[in-house]
C-alpha cells in the first residue's frame, strides 16, 4: 500500500504542476495581449494629439468669445447678431 500511495501522490503533484503551468501560460498570453493593446492605444494617442498651435488658437477664440459676451464692443472677434424667435417644444405640428 505504501508504494501505491506514493505513486498516487506523485501523479497528483504532477497534475497540480501541469495545471499551474497552464494557468501561468494563459496569464502570460493575456499579459502580452494587454501590452499590445497598450502600445496601440499609446500610438493612437500620439497621432491624435492636438498640435500646440491649434490649442493656442482655440484658447484665444475662447477668451475673445467670453470677452465679447461680457462687454459690448470689447473684442476683436466679430460675431453675428442672431436671435431665436421660438424654441422647439418637442411636439410635432403638422401643417
What does this structure look like?
Helix content is 69%, strand content 0%. The radius of gyration is 34 Å and the shape is elongated. It has one domain. The model has no long low-confidence stretch (mean pLDDT 78). The protein is mainly α. The chain contains two helices and no strands. The termini are far apart.
Furnish the topology, listing elements before pairings.
Layout: H1 2-48, H2 52-70
How would you describe this structure in keywords?
mainly alpha, 95 residues, elongated, 0% strand
What's the quick description here?
The chain has two helices and no strands.
- Tell me the number of structural domains: 1
Q: What does the radius of gyration come to?
A: 34 Å
CA distance, first residue to last residue:
97 Å
- Integer average pLDDT: 78
> What oligomerization state is this entry in?
single chain
Question: Structural class, please?
Answer: mainly alpha
The gross shape turns out to be elongated
**Would you identify the regions where 5 or more consecutive residues have pLDDT less than 50?**
none
Approximately what portion of the residues adopt beta-strand conformation? under 5%
Amino acid at each position: 500500500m505504501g508504494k501505491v500511495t506514493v505513486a498516487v501522490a506523485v501523479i497528483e503533484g504532477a497534475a497540480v504542476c501541469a495545471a499551474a503551468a497552464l494557468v501561468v501560460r494563459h496569464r502570460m498570453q493575456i499579459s502580452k495581449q494587454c501590452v499590445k493593446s497598450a502600445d496601440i492605444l499609446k500610438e493612437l494617442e500620439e497621432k491624435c494629439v492636438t498640435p500646440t498651435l491649434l490649442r493656442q488658437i482655440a484658447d484665444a477664440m475662447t477668451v475673445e468669445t467670453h470677452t465679447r459676451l461680457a462687454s459690448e464692443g470689447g473684442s476683436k472677434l466679430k460675431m453675428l447678431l442672431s436671435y431665436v424667435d421660438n424654441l422647439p417644444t418637442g411636439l410635432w405640428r403638422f401643417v
